[in-house]
């Protein structure tokens, strides 16, 4: 007959935060080891993919690591992925170019109408 294993915490329900694994001790007894929740990696705010270079930890564990490990040293580092940052920069550049083109066209129309 299998050995009985008793819970070590007061919470008896099989919830997501109360996961456990049966482990055999060196003394031969079976005991429960309570498992922590698996950490999910931080996601890009635009496209939703996991951010490379930032470790996947539980929220409280980010307090114990240095700032250098939590971010990436570039614009939007630790918040947006490289591809999204590239597209943002490109979009901003193209918007500025469009404004300049619009201004030039308006200037040309003004000079053309004054010549007539």
Taking the sheet with the most strands, its summary is: 2 strands, antiparallel
Helix content: 25-40%
Could you state the order of secondary-structure elements as H and E?
EEHH
* Biggest sheet, spatial arrangement of strands: 1-2
Structural class: alpha+beta
Mean pLDDT: 93
Give the N-to-C terminal Cα separation: 105 Å
Total number of β-strand segments? 2
The Cα radius of gyration reads 29 Å
Beta fraction: 5-15%
Number of helices: 2
Uncertain runs are none
Silhouette: rod-shaped
Please explain how this structure is put together:
The chain has 2 helices and 2 strands, in the order ββαα. By secondary structure, it is an alpha+beta fold. The model has no long low-confidence stretch (mean pLDDT 93).
Compact description:
This protein has 116 residues and is α+β, with helices and mostly antiparallel strands. The protein has helices at 67-70, 82-115; strands at 20-24, 30-34.
């Amino acid at each position: 007959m299998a050995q009985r294993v008793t819970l070590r915490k007061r919470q008896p329900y099989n919830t997501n935060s109360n996961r456990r694994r049966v482990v055999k001790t060196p003394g031969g007894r079976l005991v429960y080891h309570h498992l922590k929740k698996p950490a999910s990696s931080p996601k890009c705010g635009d496209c939703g993919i996991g951010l490379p270079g930032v470790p996947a930890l539980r929220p409280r564990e980010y307090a114990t690591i240095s700032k250098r490990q939590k971010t990436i040293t570039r614009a939007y580092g630790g918040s947006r992925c490289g591809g999204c940052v590239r597209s943002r920069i490109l979009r901003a550049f193209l918007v500025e170019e469009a404004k300049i083109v619009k201004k030039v066209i308006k200037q040309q129309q003004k000079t053309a109408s004054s010549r007539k």
